Amino acid sequence: MTISFRFDPVELPPEAKELRQEVRAFLHQEAEAGTLSAHRGKGGFSREFSRRMGAKGWIGMTWPKNYGGQERSQLERYVVTEEMLAAHAPTRAHSTADRQSGPVILRYGQEEIRQKILPQIAAGELCFCIGLSEPNSGSDVFAASTRATKTDGGWLVNGRKIWTSNAHEADYMIALLRTSPSTKENRRHGLTQFLVEMKIPGITIRPIINLTGGHDFNEVVFDDAFLPDSHLIGEVDMAWKQATDELAYERSGPDRWIETFSSLVELVRVAGEEPDDRLAEGIGRQVAHLATLRRMSLSVAGMLQAGKTPAVEAAVVKDLGNNFEQALPDKVRLLAPPPGDAQPDSNDDRFEEALRYTTLIAPKLTIQGGTREILRGIIARGLGLR
Amino acid sequence: MSDSDNIIVDTATRIFRDLCEPATINDAETGVWPTALWDALEESGLPLAWVPEGLGGAGAAMADGFAVLRAAGRFAVPAPLAETLIAGWLLARAGLGMPAGPMTIAPVHANGHIALGKDGRLSGRARRVPFARNAGHIAVLAHRGNERLAALVATAGLSIAQDKSLAGEPRDTVSFDGAVPEAINPVDVDQDMIQRLGAAVRLQQMAGALEKILEQSVQWALDRSQFGRPIAKFQAVQHNLATLAGEVAAAGAAADLAAEACCGPDLGEAEVAIAKVRAGEAAGAGAAIAHQVHGAMGFTYEHTLHHATRRLWSWREEFGNETVWAIRLGRMVATQGADRLWPFITQDS
Q1: Which of A260, A384, A265, A263 is nearest to A323 (CA)?
Q2: Domain that holds residue A50
Q3: A3 touches chain B (CB under 8 A)
Q4: Which of A189, B209, B236, B281 lies 20 to 30 A from A262 at CA?
């Protein structure tokens, strides 16, 4: 038997390379203006920054022009994404919409919604959140029980979603709601995707503070919240079909291995130009992992561009990437010169800050967006074991 | 296994599949030269892949040679195909053709040093020379003062002390004292370039061997039943194999990265370093999982798993192990500085 996954070599076309330089120039300007927050994992939340990116045509880049996109390639989008992440640019306001919500609407949304919403996303004007997890359904996505009950002209929603990042800031949510009971033949039957406007009556948002003291997560409670018919996305009861592999591929992007990158950057900074063998080796090992991951990630983008469907490859990259980025802060910690009482210089402060932040967020990295256990199950299925 | 649309790779794969059976590999370990296998390889011109046609070679692209070596790794070819390719490359860089027959290269160590005296005789010794006892000739990187030369040296008459790798393949100590080269020319290759090309070659072999053990391990898990079902149905086994798949994928990507960088004349230092570190780690981690999945049976000589795993343990140490290359890579990164780390990773691609 032959294991059928491969990571095709990929050559970035000239326009992608030029685009990278353009993005770097933009980021340089932003850095000068003080809008980049160097140590903050996924970057901060800034509607203004999102609008500036939208003005550049860097949100919804691959979408059709008649929906506000630029019809640019997957590889060009990849380049923009990785540059933004490496610079810890404040993309949180639009990144979910760009990466997931927009593509779902593009593929399955009703035309009036597509025409209204997609150009706004592309302009950097909208923030989306994802209504998937519930108190009783996390990894078991299809056990969701928040109900959408048919009524005149629309649907009434009752229940709650949890771990909803940015719900408190979002304009819209794409929610997975139960419209029918599941069946014996198909336990995934009965769930439907809907567009939810966050400011409607019947929605209450409660903050959940994470262990860094930050406010990302929320609980969203629905109490007879009304969704118009036009907000149905795709077919009733058929969300399981719409959770396509296409979206899973998005998960292999650089956001899956770059969230703790700042700790390595700052380690290199405090290492100076001539680190001893031990420190050099430690840096080298992490760079080797990172560079290999990056190549694999780029390769998946290239395969997407070529119209392939690299489902197993995407899961492999996410699993490897998440494990790498999770382990990185602790490796950095043990490689770093020990702190002391000498006059701290700005490099040390930056290092401490980067290490503190990345250490605290490390546990979530193999949980968010698909746990390690689920990913390994997906890979195992891809290997023919299940 | 011929999903390649590359005729050179297909030819090699067919030869390996037909003539490199487990018995051939085991016999080679006892000193039986795989005659049918090597003769078929010579007949196909594969050992001369990296020699230009103008020098009597096959004139294949570097990339094709690397692809053949990945297949060779997959089949655990117990013969110096890799070494003959490198030898051909070295001699060709000096404008020298090469004779028929198995060949190898020396020195293989970074601090290796074979000198050419005024009397036209070589001096010095090289340890761990792969398949020296089987080679008819050795391509030697020699020094005369600061000048570097590539020398074609017949093994007849050389003093060769035999030793083996963990995989049971020959790794002999060769004394070149008094040896007169059959041909010698100045060459623009230094010992470090030999390290880089050698590493890129071992990377292909490791990537192929890792592919093989993944296939074997998945098949084993599907075939072997305990507690009333195939062990593939146990989540612990599934997760181990998923981890193995990740390591195999990473090693393959790393080998590709290095091979691409070595298709040009400069043999990219950064890419080779990145790849050798990552694939070296993958070799160890991957072999461990494969053995774990196979249980006791995989620990026997009779089962073929060790054909790959012993080679993985051997190859990861050659032409610089993970530590050697990681230190080098770390120094490169540190010299450029923190703000150049990201551009370094993207290699402005």
Answers
A1: A260
A2: 14-126
A3: yes
A4: B281
Q: State the CATH class of domain B192-346.
A: mainly alpha
Sign of CA dihedral A173, A243, A117, A165: positive
Query: Given CB atoms, is B345 within the 8 Å cutoff of chain A?
Result: yes
Q: Are residues A231 and A292 in the same domain?
A: no
CB contact under 8 A, B253 and A82: no
Statement to judge: residues A213 and A294 lie in one domain: no
Domains of chain B, residue spans: 7-189, 192-346
Query: Does A86 have pLDDT greater than 70?
Result: yes
| Of residues B274, B259, B255, B285, the one with CA closest to residue B346 | B274
Domain spanning B7-189, CATH class: mainly beta
**Across the interface, which of B214, B278, B339 has its CB nearest the CB of A288?**
B278
**Cβ separation of A383 and B333 shorter than 8 Å?**
no
Whole-number Å distance between alpha carbons of A128 and A138? 19
Closest among B6, B4, B245, B257 to A311, alpha carbons compared: B245
Number of structural domains found in chain A: 3
Last residue of a domain, one of A214, A239, A264: A239
Interface check B334 vs A, CB under 8 A: yes
Q: And the tokens for B147?
A: 């000048």
Whether residue A287 and residue B341 make contact (CB cut-off 8 A), yes or no, is yes
User: Confidence band (pLDDT; 50, 70, 90) for A22?
Assistant: very high
3-class DSSP state of A205 = strand
First to last CA, chain B: 32
Task: Quote the minimal CA–CA distance from A150 to chain B in Å.
Answer: 40
Half-sphere exposure of B324 (CA within 13 A, CB side): 17
- Chain centroid offset of residue B340 CA: 32
pLDDT digits (tens, 9 = 90+) for B285-314: 999 999 999 999 999 999 999 999 999 999
| B83 CB burial (10 A radius; 0-12, 13-18, 19+) | buried
Tokens (6 digits) for B180: 């007169």
Closest-CA residue of chain B to A6: B249
ipTM of the complex: 0.96
To test the contact with chain B by mutation, choose from A78, A297, A322, A376 the residue with the greatest count of B C-beta atoms within 10 A, namely: A376
By CA distance, what is A271's nearest residue in B?
A: B334
For residues A230 and A261, state if they share a domain.
no
> Is pTM beyond 0.90 here?
yes
Taking residue B224's Cβ as centre, other Cβ atoms within 10 Å add up to 15
Q: Which of A334, A330, A242, A327 is nearest to A293 (CA)?
A: A327
